[in-house]
Predict the 3D structure of the following.
Amino acid sequence: MKVLALIWSDESNWDRLSEDERKEWYGKYRSFSQAADGKLAGGDELAPTQAATTVRVRDGETVVTDGPFAETREQLGGYFVLDVESLDEATELAAKIPGAWHGSVELRAAAEEEAS
């Protein structure tokens, strides 16, 4: 099964880190990726929320605004696509994602089509 691991944290904390501290965190993410034992089907760090664009369609009109949809204490900073056998396995893997140590990791299983 495919599970999306959404990595949430307060991006202002990242902004306060020194270059050496950032390199250390990137190293932790590389280590996680290498240790994931073939269970990663993809993933990326996302640009800061200031670079976000939100698109809505209301009454047939497309409305484009800068920034995220809503103000929150934590922002979506990245994701991994996990290729696992169960949600339990995804949970075990998510606990090893460095973002879980200072933020949170939300797991969302891909919807499976019902056989007709």
Notes: Residues 16 and 22 are 10 Å apart (CA to CA). The two ends are 19 Å apart (CA to CA).
